[in-house]
Design brief:
The chain is α/β, with parallel strands linked by helices and 245 residues long. It contains eleven helices and six strands. The strands form two sheets. It has a four-stranded mixed beta sheet with strand order 4-3-6-5. It starts with 9 loop residues before the first helix and ends with a helix.
């Protein structure tokens, strides 16, 4: 599947620019410093003035962490998902929401996938976390229990993770970064629970995909996030060896 760039319309550009500019203003004092730095670094290929061209973004990443955007029609099977991440390919839709649906989507579009997910892939620690996450999922693709646990880890980190930076709570999860409403409520609402990151707790915590989150987990740094997947990989591999014996 390819991104058919010539098929985008003027309305698509208006939607993209509206979403991009709105979130850039909204995230100034909310987003992770690492995310904002990465987004600024990418401004030549990712900005409000033109729709993202995956080929240009992939070329840019070839000088960084060597990730590539892989076009997908929408949500994909779990085995394909882990296969892509293990190969340093991040799946992205090519379609964009309409003006009358700026704030709610049933499934992720290009703004969520690209604006939310792609910038931090240029950060070495975050890049390694995602890559190892993909390889771990690929190695346990036949284990339904472990895949469910990895799904929970993905949800509470990559999609809806919070981070503490200089004693200030910030956002690094793509599901929050690309959402105007949740980027406000995740930091300010008194009706949600914000918990310190605990790997084993996250692996057992259920989540809901149809509404804003009721709890979030806070990491200390992107390096600690990377270390968590190394810890989990080692633990599962040791358990697997012991089971075989």
């Amino acid at each position: 599947m390819k991104q058919l760039y010539e098929n985008y319309t003027k309305e698509d550009l208006v939607v993209w620019s509206t979403l991009f500019n709105r979130q850039m203003e909204n995230l100034k004092n909310k987003a992770s410093v690492d995310y904002l730095y990465a987004l600024d670094e990418m401004k030549s290929v990712l900005n409000a003035n033109k729709l993202p061209k995956f080929e240009e973004i992939n070329d840019w990443f070839s000088y960084k962490t060597d990730w590539k955007i892989e076009c997908v029609p929408g949500l994909i099977p779990v085995d394909q998902f882990f296969e892509l991440l293990a190969d340093k390919k991040f799946p992205s839709s090519t379609w964009l929401r309409s003006m009358d649906k700026l704030d709610y989507l049933e499934e992720p579009d290009m703004f969520h996938d690209v604006f939310g997910h792609i910038p931090l892939l240029s950060n070495p620690a975050y890049s390694e976390f995602i890559h190892q996450f993909g390889k771990l999922g690929k190695s346990f693709i036949s284990n339904e229990e472990k895949l469910l646990q990895l799904q929970r880890l993905y949800w509470f980190t990559i999609e809806f993770g919070l981070i503490m930076e200089d004693d200030k709570l910030r956002i690094y999860g793509a599901g929050i970064l690309s959402s105007f409403g949740e980027s406000i409520s995740s930091l300010n609402s008194n009706e949600i629970e914000r918990l310190d990151f605990d790997l084993m707790t996250i692996l057992q915590t259920e989540f809901c995909t149809s509404e804003m989150q009721s709890n979030y987990f806070i990491i200390e740094s992107l390096l600690s996030l990377k270390n968590s997947i190394i810890t989990l990989t080692n633990k599962w591999q040791i358990n697997e060896l012991e089971y075989i014996r």
